[in-house]
Amino acid sequence: MPLTFWASRQTQRPIWQLKERRAGTVGGGMWMAWLQPCCSAPPNAQPQSRNSIGSRPAGRGEPGRRPLLPCCFLAAQSVSAPLGPLPLRLPPRRPRPRKKRSPFKAPSLGRALISACIRTSVSPQNPASSLPIAMSDHPDRANPFSIVLGTRESQLAMWQTKHVLGLLQQHHPETDFTIKGMTTTGDQILNVALNKVGTKALFTKELEVALELGEVDLIVHSLKDVPTTLPEGMVLGATVEREDPRDVVIMAPKWVEQGILRLEDLPKGSVLGTSSVRRTAQLKRRFPGLLFHDIRGNLNTRFAKLDAPDSPYDAILLAYAGVHRLEWDHRISQILEPEQMQHAVGQGAIGIEIREGDAKIQTYLECLNHKPTQLRTFCERAFMRRLEGGCSVPLGVWTELRPKEQGSAVQVLKFVGSVCALDGSDEIVSELEVELGGEDHQHHLELAQGLGLQLADSLIEKGARVILDSIKVHNK
Q1: Residues 299 and 418 in one domain
Q2: Which domain holds residue 53?
Q3: Do 110 and 5 sit in the same domain of this protein?
Q4: pTM over 0.85
Q5: Catalytic residue among 225, 247, 314, 358
Q6: Confidence of residue 142 (pLDDT cuts 50, 70, 90)
Q7: Could you tell me the pLDDT band of residue 472, with boundaries at 50, 70 and 90?
Q8: 225 tagged catalytic
C-alpha cells in the first residue's frame, strides 16, 4: 500500500519539502521524515502519546491515529519484523530562510532516503513486514520512474544494449527505457595484456557499483566478461539468445589480395594478433610455426591496426558474434571449427545482471530469457567456476543441445571442455553429455550445472591441475 510522507509532526509537507536539520551531538546533517500508510489503523491499535516517535496524533484532514515509521531507519536496512516506537531524538529546529527546491534536488542523504522509501508499501496487519528498496525510482534521473540499462560505452556493448532495449520495448511498449554508458577498468587499461592485469571483473565492476547504488536497474553484459561468481546481492536475471560462439580469422589485406585466407596457408613466422590466452595457447599447439602478439582495443581499433601500412600483424583473431553484430562479416577470412579452436565460456551470449530479489525487473526480463542458451552457458560457467578459470586461464568449451532422436521430446546436452598449457605444449580434453527429459527447466539447469562440474572433475583426474598450477605460478 502506498505511503504518505510527512516532514514533521505539526505540518503535512510532501517529501520534497523536507528541511535539513543538523544535530550538534552527532556533528553532521541528518534527515528526519515520517512515513504514514494510507490506510486506517488496525482495529486493535492502542493510542500512543504525542511524544512517541512511533505515532502521530490526528491532524488536519486525518481520519484518526495512524502508525508512523522513520524513513531513515527504512533506508538503513530491510525490515522483516514490526517496528515499535524507536528511541530517536529530534534536534531542535533551527530557523532558516525558505528556499524553493526542485523535487529531486535534495542533498545526497535525503536523495538516498527518498529512493529507499518512495516506493515502499506497508501491510495494515504488519506495517513493517515488507519494505523493499526499489531503486528504479532514483531521484537523480531526468525521469525517475524509467528503467535504466547500464552498459559499457564501447560500440559493441552499445549495440548489445540497444538490441536488448529493442526487445524490451517490443514486449513492454508502455514503459520508458533508457541507456547509461560507463567506462570500466578494462576499457581504460589498453597497454597491458588482460591476463597480466591481475584482477577479475575488469569489465563489470563499475557497472555493478552503479547497479548496487540504484543508478541503473540492470546491466547488459557480454556474458564471457562476467565472472562466474557474482557479488553478493547480484544475479543473472536473463540470458539472451546466443549468437554463433565460434572464433574467426581476419586476414590482412595483403594476404587477401594473394588469396591466402586460412591459417594453414600462412608462411612460418606470420604474426597473429589476439588478447586471448585461450586462442594463443590452442593455436600454438595446432600451428607451432606462427607467432602471437597482443592486440587491444575495440573492433574498429583492431581493424585499423591490422590495415595500417606498417602493421606488424598478418591476421587477427576475433569472436564471430562481435564481428557479425557490427556488420564486418565481409572481412571474415575463416571460421574456426571446434576441432581447431574451442570457444570461451559464455562467448556469443548476452547476460543481464540485476539486483537479487528485484521482482519488478525480473518480471520485465522473462520475455528475454532464452532457455537453450541459458542451459548451455549455465553448464559452461559451472565448469569454469570449478576450475577457477578466468581470462588468464586457457579454458576452451563447446556445447550442443539437440534432440535425442528425431521428433523426441528428450534433449541431449553435449559438453566438450579443455585445458591447455600456455605454450601449447600440453592439452587435456574431455567430453560428456546428459539427457534432459520433461519440461522442468529448473531441473534441467541443475543437470546442466552437474554436467559442467563433472566434466571439470574429469579434467582434473586426467592431470589438468598440474597445468592450472603452472599457470598460476606463471601469472604471479
Answers
A1: no
A2: 1-133
A3: yes
A4: no
A5: 225
A6: low
A7: confident
A8: yes
